[in-house]
Specification:
The complex is a heterodimer.
Chain A: E1 2-5, H1 10-25, E2 35-39, H2 45-59, H3 66-73, E3 76-80, H4 86-103, E4 109-113, H5 117-129, E5 137-141, H6 149-162, E6 168-170, H7 178-188, E7 202-210, H8 219-244, H9 253-266, E8 267-268, E9 275-278, E10 280-285, E11 288-290, E12 308-315, E13 325-330, E14 337-344, E15 364-370, E16 374-382, E17 390-398, H10 410-420, H11 429-443, E18 456-458, H12 464-471
Parallel strand pairs in A: 1-2, 1-4, 2-3, 4-5, 5-6, 7-13, 10-18
Antiparallel strand pairs in A: 7-14, 8-12, 9-12, 10-11, 12-13, 14-15, 15-16, 16-17
Chain B: E1 4-9, H1 15-26, E2 33-37, E3 39-44, H2 50-58, E4 66-74, E5 80-90, E6 98-108, H3 116-119, E7 129-133, H4 142-148, E8 153-156, H5 166-172, E9 179-182, H6 183-186, H7 189-196, E10 207-212, H8 214-228, E11 233-238, E12 244-247, E13 250-252, H9 262-269, H10 277-284
Parallel strand pairs in B: 3-4, 3-7, 4-6, 7-8, 8-9, 10-11
Antiparallel strand pairs in B: 1-5, 5-6, 10-12, 12-13
Classes of the chains: A alpha/beta, B alpha/beta.
């Protein structure tokens, strides 16, 4: 049984139910299965079913089929409750028990906590106190997981009062993306990459998580979080860890997560000179004028919240010593893209006349995480015809078209994994701790100064000072 | 040979999705879709220039696999952005097809002034960006200056301009910002080679007479002045192509061979990456 707490929210509508429908469409849901939506909003099960049906039609990627929907909806229930009311929680527990009996799910439960941070403690306590003794229990926890190391530790302590670590599934939906998983396949299923995946052959790595959207109604959260807590602490550091990790001995959850934690522990805190933050002003995105961050509804007129963060990071281990990882994340940038660019060192001595190589750039292996999942390789090739002119040619392997099945949505994969008890693509307690340690160390000095915001135009690639991070090293951000 | 699939899209943000779907449609056998690119090729083509721009681009695809973005400014229409996408299979003999893409973006009304915000998300990462500007640029316009900030090379054809020779001064102001090529200058290359063969006598030249397009004549004279570092008086008579050149009254034998096509000339420019200092000097020496 899947019990979604916070079921009336946007996440349930946009992601969770379309993902559940996709699983039903592919017949990946168990025969005995039920979903219970729990939220404060008063509505009947029939109303909830109708709303979720519409959500599947609006946001689902698979064709809508009534029979598939019926198979999912038949065991769908909804209950309205105040999370801090014992009586309310008792009635939730009672409904879950009834569903167990009706559907034969034998107390096997996945609790999906899609609730705002302020409701988190109450919901965990209520679930924990009433946890079913029969069957297994798994708790999926949405981000943000705390706002600093201390609060993350508190959340971990709270969860561990009721649940073991192997029952806790901290979600970072980036890990559910096909290309992120394909990164592991690319590295560890191909003999050609791993021998050159190190400081000897790689000049540097750039990781970009760029969004074109603004805060989109999340100003209340974003004002407190900023880019560093919203993206850097979780998605960006996860991508870095997957890029830099050693080969795991197998693909079990702990083996993979052990290697990721080693990377996070090996990262040293960048000094203030190696971190840049920014906030967008007015500008144009895809031809449309957009307001400055400080003009967004719910944002303070003198807000000091960063909407952009870039850093030069190092992983101090045998494989990566002195190899910079330049990372950046931001809102209202020129293009929506998440990419990992592995820039290899230049050929040591190209035996061609200098003029012939004008158009030649270093080899880059570019991993597109979104929106167009795939891999590109930039290689030097001779221009056909007279002479020996060398140019960079991009060969793009566009993953979406390679197999005749659509790429599963991240939530589809993650919900299924949680039901199967596979935590490989979820974040472990120690990973979260290491991520927050790094973030706390970076933001510490920020409290002492007041940045001169805004410092980049919406629709650009971020503040000019971010370019200096690389120019100082004789490098530049990948051009777009 | 190239085959085309085209589809209408209304929102720029949907362009990539449409292209992805076209690629998937083309990949009927389930194999990976391969896209081959050496550059992003922009073309700024007001409606009057659009047929020529399309024809030239069609002749380029096999030689310069690229993502081509045709920007069609229509400032007098109601503000909107429209787009049409196409996928072109480049037949490689005995090999699997590779694909190149064409995106035609209509910039209407105020959208004309901010093309960079549409172009930037569509550039292919890490590859050079060339922009063929059809007609004479509006030198102070925001669209020109925005696009200059995202491109590596501006390719013009000054014989399409009305403000000669004064416009060359405006063009010269851009040389420190972006590498510039001029098709009018490129097509004089055979005549320049012929004139160069008159070395060393030509170093004493005082008068140059050209029967041909005004731009070609001005640039030939500018080239001679800058190379020889002396003044050369130009007399010019209009013709569609350069048909006659005289040096101090002496007729220069026409260079052998046929003139290159528009596609060929542009293709040559797309192989050049650095600044063309000889051209820049010729432009600065135009009177």
């Amino acid at each position: 049984m899947l019990a979604i707490f916070g079921a009336s929210g946007d996440l349930t509508r946009r992601k969770l139910f379309p993902a559940l429908y996709a699983l039903a469409y592919r017949r990946l849901l168990p025969e005995r299965f039920s979903v219970v939506g729990v939220a404060r909003s008063e509505q009947t099960t029939a109303q909830f079913r109708a709303a979720m049906k519409q959500a599947v039609k609006d946001f689902g990627h698979d064709p809508f089929r009534q029979d598939v929907w019926d198979s999912l909806a038949k065991s769908l229930r909804y209950i309205a409750t105040e999370f801090d009311s014992d009586a309310g929680e008792d009635s939730v527990a009672q409904l879950l028990d009834e569903c167990d009996k009706d559907n034969g799910t034998e107390g096997n439960r996945v609790y999906y906590l899609a609730v705002p941070p302020q409701a988190f403690e109450t919901v965990v306590e209520e679930i924990g106190e009433r946890r079913e003794r029969q069957g297994w229990t798994r708790v999926i926890v949405e981000k943000p997981f705390g706002h600093d190391l201390a609060s993350a530790n508190e959340l971990n302590a709270l969860l561990h009062r009721w649940f073991d670590e192997d029952e806790i599934f901290r979600i970072d939906h980036y890990l559910g993306k096909e290309t992120v998983q394909n990164m592991l396949a690319l590295r560890f299923a191909n003999g050609i990459f791993e021998p050159i995946w190190n400081r000897q052959f790689i000049d540097h790595i750039q990781i970009t998580v760029a969004e074109t959207i603004g805060v989109e109604g999340r100003a209340g959260f974003y004002e407190q979080a900023g880019a560093i807590r919203d993206i850097f602490q979780n998605h960006l550091l996860q991508l870095l860890a997957l890029t830099a990790m050693e080969p795991p001995i197998d693909f079990t959850a702990d083996s993979v997560r052990n290697e990721k934690v080693k990377v996070l522990r090996a990262m040293h805190t960048p000094g203030p000179k190696n971190v840049v933050r920014g906030q967008y002003g007015r500008g144009f995105v895809e031809g449309v004028e957009v307001p400055a961050y400080r003009e967004e509804p719910g944002v303070a007129a003198d807000s000091g919240t960063e909407t952009y963060v870039a850093a030069k990071l190092f992983v101090d281990n045998w494989r990566w010593a002195d190899t910079p990882f330049y990372v950046r994340a931001g809102k209202r940038l020129a293009r929506r893209e998440t990419t990992i660019a592995i820039q290899f060192q230049r050929a040591p001595h190209p035996p061609f006349a200098e003029i012939a190589g004008d158009g030649l750039r270093p080899n880059v292996l570019l991993i597109h995480v979104q929106p167009d999942e795939g891999v590109s390789l930039a290689i030097g090739a001779k221009v056909p015809g007279q002479g020996m002119t060398i140019r960079t040619v991009h060969m793009d392997f566009l993953y979406g078209g390679a197999f005749r099945t659509g790429l599963p949505e991240a939530y589809e994969r993650l919900i299924l994994d949680a039901m199967l008890g596979d935590a490989t693509l979820f974040t472990r307690e120690d990973e979260v701790e290491e991520q927050w340690k790094l973030v706390d160390a970076i933001v510490g000095p920020w409290k002492r100064d007041r940045p001169n915001f805004p410092n980049y135009e919406a629709g650009s690639w971020g503040p000019r000072v971010a370019d200096d991070l690389l120019h100082r090293d004789g490098r530049s951000w990948r051009r777009h | 040979m190239a085959t085309a699939l085209t589809t209408e899209v209304g929102v720029v943000a949907e362009i990539e999705g449409k292209l992805a779907r076209l690629r998937e449609k083309e990949s009927g056998d389930g194999g990976p879709v391969l896209r081959t690119s050496t550059m992003t090729h922009l073309a700024w083509a007001p409606p009057a220039w659009l047929p020529q721009a399309r024809a030239t681009l069609a002749g380029l695809r096999d030689r310069h696999p690229a993502r081509t973005i045709l920007l069609v400014p229509e400032p007098r229409r109601a503000t909107a952005i429209t787009a049409k996408v196409g996928l072109y299979a480049i037949d490689v003999e005995g090999a699997r097809d590779a694909y190149a893409e064409v995106i035609e973006v209509g910039l209407r009304g105020d959208a004309v002034e901010h093309p960079a915000s549409i172009v930037l998300p569509l550039l292919i990462s890490d590859l050079p960006v060339f922009c063929r500007w059809r007609g004479e640029p509006e030198w102070e316009s925001p669209q020109l200056h925005e696009l200059l900030s995202v491109i590596d090379r501006l390719v013009v054809n000054s014989s399409e301009w009305h403000g000669l020779p004064a416009s060359y001064e405006r063009l010269a102001d851009l040389f420190e910002r972006v590498a510039v090529s001029d098709i009018a200058f490129s097509r004089t290359v055979a005549w320049r080679a012929t004139l160069a063969q008159r070395w060393p006598e030509i170093r004493a030249i005082e008068r140059l007479a050209v029967e041909g397009p005004k731009a070609d004549a001005l640039l030939l004279a500018g080239w001679l002045r800058s190379r020889l570092r002396r003044d050369v008086r130009l007399s010019w008579r209009r013709a569609d192509t350069v048909v006659a050149v005289r040096v101090d009254g002496d007729t220069v034998a026409p260079p052998p061979g046929e003139p290159e096509s528009g596609s060929d000339l542009l293709s040559d420019e797309l192989d050049v990456f650095g600044r063309d200092l000889v051209y820049e000097a010729a432009v600065r020496a135009v009177r």
